[in-house]
Amino acid sequence: MHKLGKIDIRVRRMSDLVHATLRQQTRVGREQLASQEIQTEFLRKAIHLLIALVPFLASIDVTATLALLGAGSIVYTFAELKRGAGHSFGFISSITFAAARDRDHGRFVLGPVTLAIGAMLALLLYPESAASIGIYALAFGDAVSSVVGKMFGRIRIPFTGGKTIAGSLSCFAAVFLVAFRITNRALPSALVAFGATAIEALPTRDLDNILLPVGTGFLAAELLL
After folding, report:
1. Residue 39 above 80 pLDDT?
2. C-alpha torsion 147→151→156→157, nearest 10
3. Which domain holds residue 174?
4. The model's pTM
5. What is the pLDDT, as a whole number, of residue 149?
6. What are the DSSP calls for the chain, one per residue?
């Protein structure tokens, strides 16, 4: 009986050691996964920020800017169809693969196309200042919200598909600063920023690239101009 007791103690110790090792490996795995997700998000939003160049280009030539966005969408679509068929299309396919989220693997990545469509609609529908605010909301508000939410978001907002309070507050701040910088009107800028934050929080996935500039541009045209 004494020997059996010792064996039982050793078995328990080994079991505890195995469970502790598994918990440690799980924790490390989760941290590595979170780090990889943040790196992917940084890359995605770095690409996302390029849309902020559109208002400057449009101030020079709106028609040429629209043509550039349209042509870029067509080239990207062709590259993505080639990638889906198992053929690489130069650096476009490489960047798309590196920036793709888990949910995007194995399917057509719509983000760049909806990004261009959102900017084009804002330019077509609204005056220059309102269109700029809508596009900057897409470039900065959405990008900042996503990165801050991934890095610091702890409290999730119900019915938003995982959006966080930290991310939404950062979106509000970014859009407010952009709108106020363009119009120098605090209260209307805050209302536009609130509307943009509400739109960004909707669980619309890639469609927010269209809804955010169009919706924010509409609010800016009604409240600020």
Report:
1. no
2. -20
3. 2-223
4. 0.81
5. 86
6. -HHHHHHHHHHHHHHHHHHHHHHHHHHHHHHHHHHHHHHHHHHHHHHHGGGGGHHHHHHH-HHHHHHHHHHHHHHHHHHHHHHHTT---HHHHHHHHHH--GGGTTS---HHHHHHHHHHHHHHHS-HHHHHHHHHIIIIIHHHHHHHHHHH--SBPTTTTS-BHHHHHHHHHHHHHHHHHHH--HHHHHHHHHHHHHHHHSS-GGGHHHHHHHHHHHHHHHHT-
**Contact yes or no for 145/216 (Cβ under 8 A):** no
What is the total count of domains within the chain?
1
Dump pLDDT digits (tens) for 93-150: 777 766 666 666 777 888 889 999 999 999 999 999 999 999 999 999 998 998 898 8
